[in-house]
Write a structure and sequence with these properties.
48% helix, alpha+beta, 13 helices, four-stranded antiparallel β-sheet, single chain
């Protein structure tokens, strides 16, 4: 389970940008202006009442779905996105990007609800919609292919994910996008390592990429050094990892890359049959419904985590204790000042049909779905805690 979440963190198609603290003194509190769901719902209703064009319908729908999702109203977000798709999917050839964005939103919400089949179909439909309206492959298609690879990881189809990444690397090279090719190749090599950590081939490939000093290979070389730092720390070589982290820090990329996260296992939540025996067939049906947390924490200049808090939650968050211990042990690349991160984790499990019934039931395979809330304005009722003071700016072993 932890392996799948780690892959999601590392293979996410959209780069995670750490939210910078606001300007001011060291002891500040960042207060967020609220966003009311009712206002967004009224804006969508007004749009539909005047028969607004497809792109405006989609924009209003996605704005509403975003605040519903951030508020934990996953079913409401799914319903509103599905309604917009019913209105607009036939316009995909004329409005490929807006309709593709609807499929992207539906895939995200479906994953958090455990509706894996719907998430897979929607993720493929992102690419199919773009292909219908934009026959010349470009960065939008490349992003969609990265999302398919990520979805294959979530579905535990790791070989299929690697094949998608290898195909993308080849297409990007033919399209004169060496940066995209390098990104896909790096993720493919890292995926190969995670599937077979005892193999020397991924490690040797990363070393060769990191040592490439050609001017046009700088992005790939830097990425390989970051992945090697993760690999060395995974394999119990923190000194080699720290040396690479310091080297990457001198490049001053501005990104706080995740270098290491300790392993963890979620506790399975089951009913206990008579006599004290655990029985997965007696799992409570709604154990996974509405179970999520938003965690906030500061990444110190030396890359370590401080002041981790659960800022919001729905349901009982006792399932999150192993996750929280893991986040506290993370190591990020160093930076000039503390940066704040806000992350959503949903405790869910796939909905699937069991023998003897056509009804969907929760699988016993629990997992976490991750969403980075640091890339935009935090949810309305989140107050970012004071920025911590620290004299440390030197990477240390973790």
């Amino acid at each position: 389970m932890r392996k799948i979440l780690l892959l999601t963190l590392l293979l996410s198609a959209a780069p995670a940008l750490a939210q910078q603290p606001a300007n001011g003194g060291d002891n500040q509190t960042i207060t967020v202006t609220g966003r009311r769901i009712a206002d967004y719902r009224a804006a969508l209703a007004a749009c539909l009442a005047r028969h607004c064009p497809v792109n405006e319908d989609v924009d209003a729908t996605l704005a509403l779905a975003e605040v519903e999702f951030e508020g934990g109203l996953f079913a409401d977000a799914r319903r509103d996105v599905a309604a917009s798709l019913d209105r607009n999917r036939r316009h995909g050839a004329a409005f490929p990007e807006p309709v593709a964005d609807l499929y992207r939103a539906r895939a995200r919400v479906a994953r958090h609800l455990g509706m894996d089949d719907e998430a897979v179909r929607s993720t493929y439909n992102i690419l199919h919609t773009l292909e219908s309206g934009l026959p010349q492959e470009d960065y939008r298609h490349y992003t969609a292919r990265l999302e398919i690879a990520e979805m294959m990881v979530v579905a535990n189809r790791l070989n299929a994910a690697k094949q998608q990444l290898d195909t993308l690397a080849e297409r990007a090279r033919r399209g004169n996008r060496p940066d995209v090719a390098a990104l896909a190749e790096l993720r493919s090599v890292w995926l190969a390592y995670l599937m077979a950590p005892g193999s020397d081939q991924p490690r040797n490939r990363l070393i060769a990429m990191a040592d490439d000093t050609a001017p046009d290979a700088r992005m790939r070389s830097t990425g390989a050094k970051i992945l090697l730092a993760r690999l060395y720390r995974d394999q119990g070589e923190p000194a080699r990892s720290d040396a690479l982290i310091a080297e990457v820090a001198r490049l001053n990329s501005g990104r706080r890359n995740l270098i290491f996260t300790p392993p963890y296992e979620l506790l399975e939540r089951e009913n206990v049959a008579e006599g004290g025996a655990s029985n997965v067939n007696t799992r409570i049906a709604d154990t996974f419904d509405g179970q999520w947390i938003d965690v906030g924490f500061w990444v110190q200049p030396d890359g370590h985590v401080q002041d981790l808090e659960i800022l919001r939650h729905r349901g009982t968050p006792d399932w999150a204790n192993p996750l929280l211990r893991s986040i506290r042990g993370r190591v990020y690349s160093p930076g000039p000042e503390p940066t704040f991160r806000l992350e959503r984790y949903t405790y869910t499990a796939p909905l699937e049909r069991t023998t003897g019934t056509r009804l969907l039931q929760r699988s016993a395979r629990a997992r976490l779905e991750y969403y980075d809330l640091s890339t935009g304005e935090p949810p309305a009722d989140v107050v970012v805690p004071d920025r911590p003071r620290t004299p440390s700016t030197t990477p240390t072993s973790g």
